[in-house]
Amino acid sequence: MSAIIGLLVTVIALLFYQGYQRIRTPGYEAYLAPFGGNIGLERPNTRYERWVRPLALWFSDNLGFLRVFTDFQKVAKQLDYAGNPRGMTPREFYGVQVYGGLAGLLVGFLWLQLGLPFGVAALVLLPLFGYAYPAMWLKGKVKRRQQAISVSLPDLLDMLAVCVSAGMGFDIALGLLVERSKGALYEEMERLMRELRIGEPRHLAFRHVIERNSSKELRAFIEALLQAEDLGTPIAATLERQAEDMRIMRRHRLREQGAKANNQIALVMVFLIMPSIMCLVLGGIVLSFFQGSGGEIFSTPAE
Fold it and tell me: What is the pLDDT of residues 78-131, one digit of tens each?
């Protein structure tokens, strides 16, 4: 009997070891696919996908009374501008807002129950902040992505101009650069190339790029390409001219940001640094005055 049990344990251990080795082998999904073994193998990888997304979708479907505070058309456009982070849809984004509001309400309630200062204010403000924070996050995401596109565009135009001048076709050159580069701009160009490969008309594919982005530089580049194709202008000359124009626009934008920085520095000086300096100066004067008087001002007269 003991020999039979030992044999069974050995067989089970060997099967377990072989299965473990098969799972660690790259491409094991292909072996399991004919038997349906790949079903359910894909699991959420991030905390957002595991915890936030399911609840956000449930909130979006069951708590619709807050929809009046969300402009779904505007959210959809901003998600396109941000590159659809995490594959998020306007419906899911609304659910994330509700999730944040309820989380803020829970934190505010705990704050009030613990007797911490400003408990009532926290109970009111934290849910509002939790509901509004996803919109602020999305706005920052849009700004950073569109700035990255504007910064990367002149370099892309220079490389395209070199490739086209050497006799390479525009689509081939763009596809080659997309394969060898990374970034928000190249993601947009990759999406453009996919649309062209599936048979989308060129002018519609280029218009879709304009609709998905708010970068003025990228829009000017696409408009110049469409105009060059309509008029038959050489693409290489158009690319070189556009690259130079983009650098001029970047230079003007940096100067504008520098001018705004001077005003911001002046505000910091007026409202933060100057009061601190005045307090230090007045404090030194008061201390010098007390030391000079020997503390007689606050001393009681002797009887």
Answer: 999 998 888 899 999 999 999 999 999 999 999 888 888 888 999 999 999 999
In 25-118, which ranges are continuous DSSP H helix?
Answer: 28-32, 47, 53-62, 72-81, 90-113
Collect all residues with Cβ–Cβ distance below 8 Å to 211 and sequence separation of at least 6. 80
- Residue reference for tokens 């129950």: 113
DSSP of 255-298: HHHHHHHHHHHHHHIIIIIHHHHHHHHHHHHHHHHHHHHTT-SS
Cα dihedral 111/114/120/124 (nearest 10): 20
Span 145-186, pLDDT tens digits: 998 998 888 888 888 888 888 888 888 888 888 888 888 999
pTM: 0.69
> Could you give the CA distance from residue 208 to residue 199 in angstroms, rounded to a whole number?
14
* CB-CB contact of 154 with 246 (8 Å): yes
Contact 93, 138 (CB under 8 A): yes
